[in-house]
Design brief:
This protein is mainly beta. The protein has helices at residues 22-25, 30-35, 226-235, 272-281, and strands spanning 3-7, 15-16, 37-40, 43-46, 51-55, 62-66, 72-73, 83-87, 102-106, 121-124, 147-150, 166-169, 182-188, 202-207, 218-223, 249-256, 264-271. The protein has a domain at 108-281. It has four helices and 17 strands.
Length: 286
């Protein structure tokens, strides 16, 4: 059975609660869990000051959190196992540095989701902030493995300096998606604002909606890469449909960012009907 925590006292300032992780709670008694230290501003307080804790039956590696947690930070930090399920909005640094397990949020989430994560899965059923899967300021690399799924919109600098892994954004994202990207894959189902892929060295950004392209990216050709089909099969169980069949359309490939110089790629989807109209309007050219 999961360990259930219900917020009973809303923090007035950010609550640093990195102890809300299966690694920290799974092997402790209820008294030990309630006595764990959290940081409310400059004050050190027991976790029991803010949460009611309940466990029924045999102890497992699963946590369930309930409440308005927008000021609760670092949930799931560096977790390696089990699961965290949040019913409500959650604050910054969700799943930062995590190496395994699963986090699911039924609500919105703040900035720095999965920052520098090494493995595992984060699924947010709502909107999210910026710097998803990104590197912290001054750090050379962001996420190096794992999967982050955001059903709603996202903020600035998604995937900044990410090295490996997969990020999927269901709604529109703000500017600088894939900033200084070093590898991995970002899927934009709702497109993005300006400067996608700026200074990227390697990696792939896939956009299903039209995307503003920086002048330092060169158009190459129309393609249907085989790896997109593999990615589509991986994402299908999550209810995500990634178009890839030739009869549906193709992707326009842009290479760059040549200002670095880099070897990254932007793939922008073009449905079949739109592609035919475009070729007719320019006499069959690209």
């Amino acid at each position: 059975m999961p360990i259930t925590l219900r917020l009973r006292r809303r923090p007035t300032v950010p609550l640093e609660a990195e102890v809300l992780s299966p690694d920290a709670l799974a092997d402790r008694s209820l008294a030990e869990i309630r006595a764990l230290t959290v940081y409310h501003g400059k004050r050190q307080l027991p976790l029991g000051e803010f949460f009611d804790v309940d466990v029924e039956g045999e102890r497992g590696d699963d946590l369930v959190l309930h409440g308005e947690l927008t000021k609760v930070r670092w949930i799931g930090r560096a977790m390696t196992r089990g699961s965290v399920t949040v019913h409500g909005p959650v604050g910054m640094h969700l799943g930062a540095h995590m190496a395994g397990g699963r986090i699911e949020v039924h609500g919105m989430a703040g900035d720095w989701i999965g920052a520098e994560m090494k493995g595992g899965l984060i699924h947010v059923h709502g909107d999210a902030g910026g710097q998803i899967g990104a590197a912290y300021r001054g750090s050379p690399r962001g996420m190096t493995d794992g999967t982050i799924l955001i059903d709603g919109s996202a903020g600035l600098e998604v995937g900044m300096r990410m090295r490996r892994g997969t990020i999927v954004i269901g709604g529109p994202a703000k500017s600088f998606v894939g900033l200084q990207m070093k590898g991995g894959t970002i899927v934009l189902l709702g497109g993005a604002e300006l400067r996608a892929g700026a200074w990227m060295n390697r990696g792939t950004i896939i956009s299903i909606e039209p995307l503003p392209i920086l002048p330092t990216f060169a158009p190459a050709t129309r393609v249907n890469p085989g790896f997109v089909g593999l990615l589509a099969r991986y994402l299908h169980p999550f209810g995500i449909r990634l178009p890839h069949a030739p009869e549906e359309g193709d992707y326009r490939l842009y290479s760059g960012d040549f200002s670095v110089p880099g070897k990254g790629e932007l793939l922008v989807w073009r449905p079949a009907a739109e592609g035919v109209a475009s070729r007719e309007s320019v006499g069959g050219g690209i």
